[in-house]
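Second attempt. The first submission of Putative pyridoxal phosphate-dependent enzyme had a stray character pasted in from the spreadsheet, which I only caught after the job came back as garbage. Lesson logged: always re-copy from the clean sequence file. Corrected sequence (384 aa) follows.
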Amino acid sequence: MIPLAVPNLAGREAEYLQECITSTFVSTVGPFVGRFEEMVAEASGAKYAVATSAGTTALHAALVASGVRHGDLVIAPSFTFIASVAAIAHCGAQPWLFDVAADSWTLDPRLLAATLEAETERAEDGILRHRATGQRVAAILPVYTLGIPADMDPIVALAERYGLPIVSDAAAALGTSYKNRPSGALGADFTMFSFNGNKTVTAGGGGAIVTDDEAKAKLFRHLTTTARVGADYDHDMVGFNYRMTNLQAAVGCAQMENLDLFLNAKRRIAIAYRDAFADLDMVEPFPDPDYVRNGHWFAGVVLRRDFAGHLPDLRARLREAGIDARPFWKPAHLQAPYAAAPATAMAVSDDIWHRVLTLPCSTGLSTSDQAKVIEVMRNEIAKS
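This time the job returned cleanly.
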């Protein structure tokens, strides 16, 4: 089976893991954690990075550090992996779900501007509230879908106008850029990266936040290390045990040494699919806005609307040929836990989610294996 996305562990991962075992630093204390944080900060263009146990825990703690609390609303795109909105729910808050822009699959800033103008008000207490429910609007959580940074300049301007912090879910966007600015330096208060096994760079799991604000970085680190004060068992607030282990960081360091190589491979794979299917009327390419350096985390196709019903059968035939191809995210507004959340119209999200087919895109994907995927795809589409 040609897998969808598996780690590329051809670097110094085994060497660094052996160092952890030899030194006995296998838990949350050890030199690789600090080294990994420095590498992530540098790659993201931010001053500070704090590693965590997962991307989801990083989002949760960043929202808490940004003041999100029970009963609040947090603006987020509906077309996202479920963890983005789960992090909001973990705060006792509720997502306010927005549609995405068709050219990027990220939070639509024009829709955001119009909706904030029409559906919020500044109450007598000075708090921005959702007019229909009276809930406090507490933050904006853009998602950098597929490693495509959201259109952040207008989003940051709106956040400043309305006094809202930004926590960006850049899970798959490490090493990307927006208008020639790196993904960790786009104006968000916190930006999260994930190092899950299917990400371009993995630590076998884990996450990190980056920020340019030293006080925010210190607060986040304090929250994610049980809010412990000093060497004794004193804790000054409700904290979380969200630390990355030295073992994970060791793998992450080895991976970061090959970040540019991996990003180039992702881009090569995505371009090869785009060019190979350019003449087919039945499929469209994934978005690739010209104002970003796209991370191309996943590659694949979008089936034409009148061909979308063939997706399950096409996927099954690819699997029979030894090719792992999968659908993509089901939007949050269609998920049971968030069906009652406030939401905008979802013209784009409803249109695209059931038409997406992701194709093998591991950074170690061979030219011959990709050629097989392309050949089988073209043959099967021709039969449909």
